[in-house]
Design a protein that fits this description.
- The complex is a heterodimer of chains A (about 475) and B (about 325).
- Helices cover about 50% and strands about 10% of the residues of chain A.
- Chain A has about 475 residues and is α/β, with parallel strands linked by helices.
- Chain A has a domain of about 180 residues: 3-Layer(aba) Sandwich (Rossmann fold).
- The longest helix of chain A has 17 residues.
- Chain A is elongated.
- Chain B has 2 domains: about 55 residues; about 210 residues, Alpha/beta knot, CATH 3.40.1280.30.
- Chain B has 13 helices and 8 strands.
- In chain B, helix 7 links the parallel strand 1 and strand 2.
- In chain B, about 25% of the residues are buried.
- At the A-B interface, helix 3, helix 4, helix 5 and helix 6 of A face helix 1, helix 3 and helix 10 of B.
Chain lengths: ~475, ~325
């Protein structure tokens, strides 16, 4: 690549540079790219444009867009306006890149209303991107036009665009200290949007929410950061959080979907076979209900140094307290006496729990889900698997959310400190980890860091907000 | 160092851009009617092209419709890139052909100058001669050859492009089978007359489709062959193939699987209660990257080579080199 000059150049100087470049036909393009990268003064870019215009009589569209990018990068509002006028003379419509730049550039200036006009223009030829909306919404809320901002927000939701956390945060930031029941309703609406979609705000977003609540004139809201007890009680306000149970309707719905989409899917033979599944169904029906269903093979790998059947044995012993009815799912190969699977230990375990052995090529996860859901709401399951591939089999996002909620409340996982001698399990959450409200309290789980590394990991920290 | 007389007018380009076109534009604006959606899409594409994105220069009405039916922005982008690359390849091929023709003309010209007559005991008829030999062998295979089945029942598991890719791979397979010393007797089973597969085959073979020395049937292989002789080849099979059996009939699923759909062909074999097998890739190769499912023509090469030599090492040379690091010395 080339280093852009520091000062505007004369035509001859540009010519010289161009000829010394190894592929002169793309010289201008490469030069503009590196100007954008080095954030060169726009006068330098202008002198190149002048040179191009004079020698060719025209400037190619992509060069104009690159120049525009440079102007937007430096916030040269008047230049951006000029560019819009010039490009409009030559072209009826632009590509999405140019629209993005124009909207972004103008929304950050005092000419932000122009950005709204451009957004209307974009709508005529394509669906605007979510960043287009984001720029406009931020511009509107920055200028305290909250009604307009919310109008745009609802419009983008209606177009199935997913708002960034950034834009949601902006609503809280710019509404701080503002009055109005309508506005409050809208912001509560955003919190409910987080609830519906099981989104957890990050720390800075959480702070914006807290500050907004506390700034509502006459609202008397107070926010505290806290950790919820295992019992599901908030230590600050003593409020008991929603439990993780699904409603009867939700539960039945989820069960039917799992059987239809996950187990049968497009072809029952892919995960099992109809005969085997029927045999399993009969097996389960005859022994219902179970309290805990265990993925035997998965559990048998907890400690790699130990024999697999010993791991399973420990787990079964650990879970077989208080007369809990256990079902262990395994594969047929576990019944063959081998170095990892001792017949004696297998026999002993079968006195403490029911066992079902699937074909070696069947997927036992599907059986795990079926047996648990069939046993009823109280039944939990044990596996280290995150079941993401099963969640992905579900057709719509609503069912996927139900699945996640159910999973949070019913999956027993191993406690992270498995170095010890005994196997320990973390109980499933008895409360639901999701944004929730009772009207005069709000409880909002939040992530410590901005980056979300594991979408399945549930945050432990909460914001408790209550009205005095 | 600039003296005032040649001071730069940095906004001179704006004047150039604004001049000359003004009245022309006002004309077109007044003339313009409401654009049809297709024309509007064409216009958007033109702007993308001007912006330097991967967009084909020419796009047919049909392609434009496909483009508009793409469900998402990224699908649109991908489709355009695909068309763009296709166009580039076409252009490059045309250029190469032209150059070749040019060279041939030049050499012919030189040859005519030297005016040297060559003597040769054979008449130059290589291509058709070879075709006849291949045809003879294929005809032999249809009577005495070992059957090899392509299972054409995956159409609903694939996108239109995947079906096209599948057929292309089968055409290649058929070609290499025909040229081999001892060809298989190829069966296309479950091939329905109105299927997409069929349409694509006609596209590739045209009139030759009716003259191919293979067996095409809409019946299932289980109706054509005894069940205990069939072995379904699938990468998902828990059983690994040890040797090539000359008395068995191997089935290959005619499916290209770009989106990951594990276990589809295994499910089919399970449903019909057939024996399955996978190639012993792990046993002979130090696997590097990529899925264990191979293309249909690679399968054909491997099976032909196994049939001729019975040697796994020679056969597995046809696995793409990028997928493995080397052969395991003592399998």
């Amino acid at each position: 690549s080339v280093q852009p000059p520091e000062k505007p150049l004369q035509a001859e100087e540009w010519n010289r540079l161009r000829e010394s470049f190894r592929s002169p036909e793309i010289f201008e393009e490469v030069m503009f790219n590196s100007m954008v990268r080095c954030n060169s003064p726009i006068d330098v870019a202008k002198s190149l444009l002048t040179h191009v215009a004079k020698s060719k009589g025209d400037i190619a569209y992509n060069l104009l867009v690159k120049y525009l990018a440079l102007c937007v990068q430096q916030g040269q509002t008047s230049e951006i306006r000029d560019m819009y006028d010039i490009m409009k003379i030559r072209f009826r419509i632009f590509d999405s890149g140019a629209y993005n730049l124009l909207i972004r550039g103008l929304s950050n200036s005092d000419q932000w209303r122009m950005a709204l006009t451009l957004l209307e223009e974009v709508k005529k030829v394509m669906i605007p991107s979510r960043t287009n909306y984001e720029s406009c919404i931020k511009a509107a809320s920055r200028h305290q036009e909250m009604n307009l901002a919310f109008e745009l927000y609802h419009e983008m939701l209606a177009k199935d665009l997913v708002p960034t956390l950034d834009v949601l945060q902006a609503f809280f930031d710019f509404s701080r200290g503002m009055k109005g029941a309508e506005l409050q309703k809208e912001l509560f609406g955003i919190l409910l949007y987080l609830r519906e979609n099981q989104i957890y705000p990050h720390k800075t977003f959480m702070r914006s929410i807290k500050l907004w609540f506390e700034s509502i004139p006459g609202g008397n809201w107070r926010g505290h950061l806290t950790n919820i007890k295992d019992s599901g009680q908030c230590p600050v306000c003593n409020h008991q959080l929603e439990d993780s149970n699904l409603t009867e309707e939700e539960y039945n719905n989820l069960r039917e979907r799992i059987i239809r989409d996950v187990i049968h899917g497009t072809d029952t033979f892919r995960k099992t076979s109809p005969q085997e599944f029927e045999a399993f169904q009969t097996f389960v029906e005859n022994r219902l209900p179970f309290d805990i269903v265990i993925d035997g093979l998965n559990v048998s790998h907890i400690k790699p140094r130990k024999m697999q059947c010993e791991n399973l044995f420990d787990a079964v012993n650990c879970l077989a307290k208080e007369n809990a009815r256990l079902l262990v799912l395994g594969r047929k190969h576990m019944l063959i006496n081998s170095s990892n699977w001792k017949r004696g230990i297998m026999k002993e375990m079968q006195n403490k729990a029911d066992f079902f052995f699937a074909e070696n090529i069947s997927e036992d996860d599907a059986f795990l889900l079926y047996a648990t859901l069939r046993s009823g709401k109280h039944c939990k399951f044990v596996t280290r698997d995150f079941l993401r591939d099963h969640k992905a089999c579900l057709a719509d996002s609503l069912t996927r959310h139900l699945f996640r909620k159910w999973q949070r409340g019913h999956q027993i996982v191993f406690s992270p400190s498995v170095e010890g001698k005994h196997i320990n399990f973390l109980p499933a959450f008895c409360y639901d980890c999701v944004v929730q409200t009772t009207g005069d309290t709000w409880h909002i789980p939040y992530k410590d860091t901005f980056e979300e590394k594991y979408s399945y990991r549930v945050p432990r920290r909460w914001l408790c907000i209550q009205q005095k | 160092s600039c003296n005032p007389s040649e001071k730069l007018d940095l906004d001179a380009w704006k004047k150039v851009m604004r001049s000359g076109v003004q009245d022309e534009v006002s004309e077109t604006v007044s003339e313009r009617k409401e654009l049809s959606t297709l024309a509007a899409a064409r216009e958007v594409l033109e702007m993308w092209r001007l912006a330097g994105r991967s967009v084909p220069e020419n796009i047919s009405e049909e392609q434009l419709k496909t483009f508009m039916e793409c469900p998402s922005k990224s699908a649109k982008k991908k489709y355009l890139k695909y068309l763009h690359l296709k166009e580039l390849h076409k252009k490059n091929n045309k250029r190469k052909m032209d150059e070749k023709r040019q060279r041939r003309l030049e050499t012919e010209e030189q040859a005519s100058k030297t005016d040297e007559t060559k003597r040769n005991s054979f008449i130059r008829l290589w291509a058709s001669c070879m075709d006849r030999t291949y045809g003879w062998r294929a005809a032999q295979s249809m009577i005495f050859g070992q059957p090899l089945v392509f299972d054409m029942s995956y159409e609903k598991d694939m996108s239109v492009r995947e079906v096209a890719n599948t057929v292309r791979q089968i055409v290649l397979s058929e070609g290499c089978n025909r040229r081999s010393v001892d060809p298989f007797h190829i069966h296309f089973c479950n091939l329905k007359g109105d299927s997409l597969y069929h349409k694509e085959f006609i596209k590739h073979y045209r009139e030759a489709w009716g003259k191919l020395l293979i067996t095409v049937t809409d019946q299932c292989y289980t109706d054509v062959f005894p069940k205990d002789k069939l072995i379904y080849l699938t990468a998902d099979s828990p059983k690994v193939m040890k040797t090539f059996d000359h008395d068995k009939i191997y089935i290959v699923g005619s499916m290209v699987d770009r989106s990951i759909k594990t276990g589809v062909s295994l499910a089919r074999a399970k449903r019909l209660g057939l024996e399955t097998a996978a190639l012993p890739l792990e046993k002979y190769l130090l696997w590097n990257t990529g899925a264990k499912n191979l293309t249909l023509d690679q399968m054909m090469h491997i099976l032909l080579s196994l049939k001729d030599t019975g040697d796994w090492k020679t056969a597995l040379e046809f696995v793409p080199k990028r997928k493995y690091c080397g052969f395991i010395s003592k399998p």
